Amino acid sequence: MNQNTHENAKDIDALRGEMSKRLIDAVKQGDFKTVEALLKDGVNPNAHNPRVPLDALATAAGLGNERIVHLLLTYGANPNTLDLLAGTSPLHNACQGGNPEVVKRLVEAGAMIDLQTATTGHTPLMDAIWFKRPEITAYLLDAGAGLNQLTHYGFTLTDHLRYEQGVNPRDQEKLERCAQLVEERRASDRKKVSDQKLMAAVMNGDPAAAEAQLKAGANVDERHPILDSFNDWHTPLLVAARDGHTEIVKLLLEYGADVNAVENTFGAVPLHKATYNGRVEITRILASQPGINLDFQGASNGYTPLHDALWHGFDECARVLVEAGARLDLLAYDGKLPIDIAIDSFGDQHPILEILEPGPDARSKPRANLIPWHSRQRSGARAIAEQLKIAGFIGASENLLIGNPGSGEEWLYLEMVDEVRMGLAEPAVGAILDGAGRVRNQPAVAIAHGFVGFSGLQGAVFNAAQRQSPMLVIVGVADSQAHTGETHMYADVEGAAKAARAKYVKNATDSTTLLRDLRDAIVEARIPPFGPVVFIVGSNIASAPNTESAIAPKLPNIRLAPPVSEIELLADQMLDAKTPAMLIGDGVARSDGFAELQEVAELLAADVWASMESEINFPRNHPLFRGNLGHMDDSVGRELLRETDFALAVGTPIYQTVFNSKLPLFRAGVPVAAINQDPETTLRGHNDVAFPIKGDPKRILGMLADVLKKKQTEEQAARVKAAFEARQQQKGADLGQRREAQLREPGVTMAKFANLLEAQMKEMSQRPVIFNEALAGATGLTDYIGNVDMPGKYFDTSGGSLGEWGGAVGAAMIGGPTIAFIGDGGFNYVLQSLWNASRDKLPLGLVVAHNGNYGLLYANMDATMRKHGIEPASVPNPHFFELPGIDYVKIGQGYGVPGMRVEKEDDLKQAVDRLVEFNGPFLVNLVLQ
């Protein structure tokens, strides 16, 4: 090095030192703008200044400045650096500073929760107690902080607490609270160990006991609590692989154990445990599992399972791994390849070396300057995850996040790896998503892979728009600027979403306003009129640094209603009517207006007709419920409503048929009123609504009921009562006659199956949710099951669309026991949903109504022919409507769903009994006579 170069290096070092000092000074002063400007200019957030013992992050943590801590972490500050004097970490400093939000930020960024200082040996938990911070103590305990470490001067945590209580007369109440929290955690740990019967069976090497626990529903991936023991944070599979319990390993894998589960001490996976301990057969079993990561590098030394096998001299385990395809070119933290470890263990003449040669370039490959995942800066994807969680869209058992991954969205998937579920195909993902949203009446979330993925979801988005189902679809695209060059994967997702009638579409093209844009979408997904919301984000935005704060958006009051005077005018018209009718749709369910709707109908003895309806908005067996108006054309509805002299539509479009309505639905002069959160769909059609009312159906119907009761005369009330009683008697008689006739029919019928099923469901503590998409094959079902009178317990298709039975899978994921009735015509639309049911062992019954054809298409074709004056029997045979020779049980078994074929009436009871066990999914192929 010449003199000039040496001087330049000194100048650069001096400049860096000065810049790091300026950064730390700005942090001390709480000057956010200066800190941000310095970081944007490239100042290293991890730089130490020799004159200052703490780096920028430790300084901000000690001062409790959560905003600056967040900023520094976003720009890559390391949460595990140690100061130059005492060897404390930023987390220790945060415990001293006393801001719980700073502590939380650091832990979520990967701060080691049990890191001991170089001088005292204190853990962050010990410092939280030392500085009398009960709230931080509680958080660290909940996050799994260890309780059994010793300080460097020999104190246990208990010693530490007692000493502080003895020498510190102030704040005894806070110290007592800390002591109480520690004892509560110890009690919780003891209970967790006691409750983990499966883990106990595995540790005892008892396959029979392990199987019994798994059959009883034990969590196959339960985690041993952190007790500073050899089993800390181990799953049963990690323990069984380590301890050589081969039969238990097989059993756990059969029940879906995670083959790549990582324990937090050595950062090892089950395959490490097996090879480290020379378990050849277990190594062979694990290496053959689908999805196994043969090359996982442990956090403590960078060794793969192959490194471990060779390190401990187990050449047979090494051979199994090499034959399975383990990589030979991975360098451990000591710079050694597997072949180097083998030479150290066996010498340079051992036969194993012949299969370990990595190729000529392995050592010459430069090691990338890569950082561990937990040290990454806060990206847009991570910000999205935080925003979704704080808004209540992910993170709870009743939430659903699902997608079919592609390259480009990995940022999103990795940030939500513990929340996201995988689907095999987008149509199945869409159906599952829609079902979960409808059951909870809250939006579930899907991630779609660009335009290709979204196009597979378009049908679900369209159906959701038709019935106002809440959902949020996040579309990950390659690049938010891809449209400028029309790159390989580019297409107009925004236009496609609007074409599918998405309620709201937002394209996030600026990384600095990403969360603001996402919150717009979140608010739209949560307020009426409900419907699908589409949020588009490029991988360049998702991977860019993000400093926005995630906040829970406030929602407006949605229980809006017009003045009482308007309600009184409506009530007068309705009371004057002799044959009023009500048209209802899913807007009632979205509003939770069931009771109010029923009260209004009963006050008028009005005919109640289902219009755009896909769930129970009014009890089907109620005397006033008349049926469905039809969805193909308006001729059916016009005939059914020909005597109506006043109509009120609630939560539904009035004109909603497939074919355009050429004529008004009602006779000339019939007043029509409509209550809906969505006036645009209400007014669509012939613009013949005389009383359009925008607002919340629940509140408006409640107001209407109150006014009707005040205004109704005794004569009107008597007329209503007589009409109601007549309907009640007639409906009961009709139902009895239908049931009698149905149960007399020979062979296997849906009515007989439903009769047996209802007898079982009546005795269950939790009545299953039912999804019915069987259409023509389901004749007789709704005459028996009680679900059709229970809001939230029965769902069917809107407008006869197929493929929606996958919604039952979504319902089972978040809500418990569910049964789907599926037509053989619609079965193949989303059959990939079966894989999700099998993978998650969902409490799901699947009943295929097997009549060998698309029954609804025959019915629609016959109606069309008659409309055009053609005798249906004379048309050519539509062989393309037939579905012969499909074995639905075998298809289910291929996805891991057991089942049985029912062709004899004597087998019906066994099929029902097995269906309602709900020990995982079960399929019944009901061959209808």
What would you say this structure looks like, in words?
The structure is a single chain. The chain is 44% helix and 10% strand. With 929 residues, it is of the alpha/beta class. It folds into five domains: 17-192, Ankyrin repeat-containing domain (Serine Threonine Protein Phosphatase 5, Tetratricopeptide repeat, Alpha Horseshoe), CATH 1.25.40; 199-355, Ankyrin repeat-containing domain (Serine Threonine Protein Phosphatase 5, Tetratricopeptide repeat, Alpha Horseshoe); 393-543, 3-Layer(aba) Sandwich (Rossmann fold), CATH 3.40.50; 564-724, Rossmann fold, CATH 3.40.50.1220; 745-927, Thiamin diphosphate (ThDP)-binding fold, Pyr/PP domains (Rossmann fold). A six-stranded parallel β-sheet has the order 2-1-3-4-6-5, sandwiched between helices. α36 (833-839) links the parallel β15 and β16 (844-850). α3 runs antiparallel to α4 (66-74), α11 (197-203) runs antiparallel to α12 (207-215) and α20 packs parallel to α25. One of its GO terms (biological process) is carboxylic acid metabolic process. Belongs to the TPP enzyme family.
